[in-house]
Amino acid sequence: MKQHYIDERTGIRYTLQGDYYLPDLVLPVEETKSIGVWGQRHKRYLKEHKRVTYANSLTSGELNSYLADIDEQAQERFEVLIEQMKQAQGITEQLKAENVWEWVRRLNNIQACAMEIVNKEIVFA
């Protein structure tokens, strides 16, 4: 008895497992890229709220590169927002030298605002 056969219409290979032929399906190999906090948040968002998009990206082998791209975009946007807000609010190294606690308070506020904007515009969009 044949242990394997290939469906001529689809090109899918099947293997005999007990009494049934099961397809030999494997995910496409994709380049593994590092995914930071923004990419991880977007992945969790996709899993919870966009299941079809997540499943399609995963099975097509594009999920990792997509998440790495989202992570890179979000990080760049975050850094640009922080610099723009620092300039707009006059947060300088001089303030840091004169009153470090005020500088920390204002910078933390800017980072929280920038994080909220990035989440809304990129991560949870």
SSE topology sketch:
Layout: E1 4-6, E2 13-17, E3 20-23, H1 37-49, H2 51-60, H3 63-89, H4 93-98, H5 100-123
Antiparallel strand pairs: 1-2, 2-3
Write structural notes for this entry.
With 125 residues, this protein is mainly alpha-helical. It has two domains: 30 residues, no CATH class; 93 residues, no CATH class. The chain is 64% helix and 10% strand. The protein has five helices and three strands; from the N terminus they run E-E-E-H-H-H-H-H. Strands 1-2-3 form a three-stranded antiparallel sheet, with no helix packed on it. A hairpin with a 2-residue loop joins strand 2 and strand 3. The longest helix is centred in the middle third of the chain and has 27 residues. The relative contact order is 0.12.
Structure described in brief:
The protein has 125 residues and is mainly alpha-helical. The protein folds into two domains: 30 residues, no CATH class; 93 residues, no CATH class.
Q: What best-fitting shape do the alpha-carbon axes yield?
A: rod-shaped
**Continuous helix count:** 5
Averaged pLDDT: 91
Major beta sheet, specifics? 3 strands, antiparallel
Strands of the widest sheet, in order across it, are 1-2-3
Whole-number tally of structural domains = 2
Helix amount: 55-70%
Beta-sheet strand percentage? 5-15%
Structural class: mainly alpha
Oligomer: single chain
